Amino acid sequence: MIFEPIDIEISKLSCERDDRLLFKNLSMTLNPGQILRVAGPNGAGKTTLLRTIAGLFDIQTGTIRMNQLPLKECLEQILYIGHKPQVTKDLTVLDNLKFLTGSDDDHLKRALSDVGLKGYHDSLVKELSQGQGRRCALARLWCVKAPIWILDEPYTALDVEMVKTLDTRITWHSAAGGICLFTTHQPPQSLKYTTLELDHVT
Amino acid sequence: MSLERRMLTRELKLNVARPGEIFKPMWFLILVVSMLPLALAPDSDLLSEIGSAMIWVATLLALLLNTEHLFQSDFSDGVLEQWLFLNRPLAWLVGLKLIAHWLFHVLPLILITPIAGIMLSVPTDVLWALLVTLVIATPALTCFSGLGAALTLGSSRSGILGVLVMMPLFVPIVILAAGVLIRAMDGSDTLPLLALLGAFSVVAATVVPIAVSAAIRLNIGGSN
Prior knowledge:
The complex is a heterodimer. Chain A has five helices and nine strands. Chain A has a five-stranded parallel β-sheet, with helices on both faces. A four-stranded antiparallel β-sheet of chain A has the order 2-1-4-5, with helices on one face. Helices cover 26% and strands 26% of the residues of chain A. By secondary structure, chain A is an alpha/beta fold. The radius of gyration of chain A is 17 Å and the shape is globular. Chain B is mostly helical. Chain A binds chain B through residues 47-48, 51, 55-58, 75-76, 78-80, 82-91, 95, 98-100, 102, 124, 146, and chain B through 1, 3, 6-7, 9-10, 13-14, 17-18, 73-74, 76-79, 81-82, 84-87, 220-221, 224.
């Protein structure tokens, strides 16, 4: 599968939260196939930047355009996985994914076996371990057709095996022409990416 | 499967998984109604006179009790913010959520009010008026308390605050409903007041989802 070419153009983006300036005049262009790691110390504004690009925060100053279109018109192109669980504890793994992705059962079961949750489709999410819950949320990467992935701390609570699987999946996504933005404090070993360093601006 | 069906299926499954949420307000209503004759003199004339009004107020409170956390668990799980990526207007999804809430939580409450009415020896024709007012007025009440819930999503002790914020909007509905009940007891025409109540519900159902979606956006924008 190859995605339609898509680019993200960020120009002069600034953000201030609770009287602290997080980033100022941030400009960059993300091209098809690009993997960008947003790095920086705690509180540097990594999550804020990702949520702004995902359209969850209103832009304070500056513009974000996708394929020359304003961000608000392109939200269905985005798959955002934040650091909240993203799954409902009282529903089964399959029901959670069915609601969020709209994929059919067979497709979802394949995705679940890809993330090592084979046979867990009828388990309630509250019966899973934290890492398994995270795997369940990440299983969406195996069934959604959105070209832009925005992943906030996707490696949290994952074991070595799953980290590798996720790296492979992100590489596949980039090879298909998709864009991936993510944050992490442990630089992934088997992934080629560019880094955007956010420093405290005081 | 269309998104609308997915949404309603999810609500159904969530309610099957959390039956307490449905039964808690029903217990509340029955408790209030069974305590009332004990607290008052057991005079059946007095009870049948104030019974319908008591049931109405108890139902309103029970409804507030189960609507105050309408969006809370989806919000803290991060599922609510995923609604923004679902390729539908947020107000439409909110409308679906409110409809599902009315079907699974408010309708069961209305269905047990005849039992409450019999317990307080409310006359049959007043009981009918009570049922009709509840069916017509609860969509507006559900919408308004949903708005209260959405406005206070970000604050930790949101429950009572949302109810307080929305109280002024409940007042006209309660006054109109009381008017219907009084007229039903006199045997006079209740239709004009019922039409007004219906108008309230129609306006609420069309306008409130937009306000709720704005409130949800605001709260998502203010959280991590």
